[in-house]
Catabolite control protein A
Amino acid sequence: MTTRIKDVAKEAGVSTATVSHVINDTKFVSDEVKLKVEEAMKRLQYIPNMVARSLRSRKSNTIGLIVPIKTNDNSNNFFLSVANGIEEVLSKNGYHLLVSNSHEDPIEEIERIKMFNTQRIDGLIIAPTSGITRESCGLFGHYPIVFFDRRPEGVPGDWVLVDGMKSAYRGVSALIEKGHRKIGFIAGRMDIPTSNDRFNGYRKALEDYGIGFNEDYIRIGDLNGASGYEMTKELISQEVITAVFVANNAMSLGAVKYLKDNHYDIPGDIALIGFDDYEWTGIVNPPLSVIRQPSCEVGRRAAEIMLKRIKRSDSICQGHLLEAELIVRGSF
Amino acid sequence: MTTRIKDVAKEAGVSTATVSHVINDTKFVSDEVKLKVEEAMKRLQYIPNMVARSLRSRKSNTIGLIVPIKTNDNSNNFFLSVANGIEEVLSKNGYHLLVSNSHEDPIEEIERIKMFNTQRIDGLIIAPTSGITRESCGLFGHYPIVFFDRRPEGVPGDWVLVDGMKSAYRGVSALIEKGHRKIGFIAGRMDIPTSNDRFNGYRKALEDYGIGFNEDYIRIGDLNGASGYEMTKELISQEVITAVFVANNAMSLGAVKYLKDNHYDIPGDIALIGFDDYEWTGIVNPPLSVIRQPSCEVGRRAAEIMLKRIKRSDSICQGHLLEAELIVRGSF
DNA sequence: CTGAAAGCGCTTACAG
DNA sequence: CTGAAAGCGCTTACAG
């Protein structure tokens, strides 16, 4: 069968302990013995069994990741990009990545977390749904947690967020400085913190520029293209506005689609700023100005924090707030 | 510390073997005893340790997935979508998914496979790079392999592909039936089988309609938007053609961008069919006609085959060829 | 500097 | 129908 550490030990004429120490570099072993062991490993084509190692050492070198991608949202590049960033950092450091999807559903999320618990993950990186609250603490194992994209209150853990408030503020104030006063705001459900933060950025911008807040200019829908389409339609047909800020990527696409379908001139009739810099934003006509989140960086950072936390679990939790930038193109 | 099966056994007044059998339903246990065990588990909040189970039972309930997403290709929804499909099926069946990325680099691919081998995965689902050949067989462990998107020759394993030949055939013959005779073909490197298959579909369509093949109409670049842009530019400036078939998603975007930047009328000056149905294809002007691959279905199917193969490893390997459809919109 | 041995938490023949 | 015990392949105090 497969060769074990015992076989290597016999082949090299040493104890299994010594082989283990050579493999893990956990104690000084003379060069002579080390060489013998290494040659034996090569000769026998030894492949360490990480499962056994995990059991004994009580760490799995595995990090769990839970993303909240909805079933039909197969173009959610934000999370793809974050996952890429995480995978990059982890695999460079010899860690494995176990991936799961909550589909933005709190029930499924709990199931996934429980599954991960049985796997003895060393840490969990998660974009939590609104289901994760102070009461959820007991759900998690004794591993460090890094939240990204959203951050539940009352649950200890590090976090990496993009400053949604500042993001929206940037977009909306750019619209204002172009002379717009009647600015619509479209977002997804407010129980997801990102939507809420961005909404606050919108309000803050209006406030700072001395523009009155008008509730009629707000449309809250679902986080998908169809809803973006509907909300834009509603907003534009019911209100006299000159600009729209869309606080979500899928909805941005819906907004563009509605405006195009109905032959609105962008930015002549309606100025538009969308969220997230997907590739298509550069090729629509006019190219869409957007808020670009540093998504890959979010992933990398989350993974780095996780690895640090695993090394020193004592230090207090900390947050990282990354900044988004406004990409100015032709839509406002 | 954490409670073990031994604690449950003591609490329930039975042996660990009985507890194990209750958990795994692997032998008949009287209802009475079963109940006692179940109550004990609940009382002690017992969480099985899958690592220990894996070690003992020599199966990990974990499948490895290796995708070939290049570093900057964060909009590769094809693989995102496939991964979603895989995750969906696996987690429904109690399996875990370990994800890694080869970045389309054979060297990295080998490293990732080796990492997976140490993890004792029960199976590997992979879109192999061109580095996987007959000689690579020794690289894999004794687990079943399901290839998707591409299929290396001479390596045993099941596979799930989308018929690239037929896909391209469909697109190109649609162009021909619209009256086009001078049709350009743009694709990525030919060492990736998908590009090659699609090229063959292009040739076959020309042949079947009695149109001569002209090598000057072919442009082979890299699998990214910039290259799509360049190839389109070259093709259009050097040749007199009326239509282009682009055999890759990122390159399709580049092609559209070039045509738009240079104010070509689509389909008036140049008719266009792209590859893969990303969300943006519906909102550009005119909406892009594309070949839509059933990406999520590829993932689901790959996972299902994997699970079947794990259950009965005796049956012979089989392939699944899914069909892509032509989505007709306004670009030809 | 190296080795003998216990033990991580399970499953699984085997015996009764 | 249930239990005692071996063993999966490692790591890690401990002794020398």
Chain A touches chain B through 52 residues (CB under 8 Å). Residues 60 and 120 of chain A are 7 Å apart (CA to CA). Chain A has a mean pLDDT of 92. The domain at 62-162+296-322 of chain A is CATH 3.40.50.2300 (Rossmann fold).
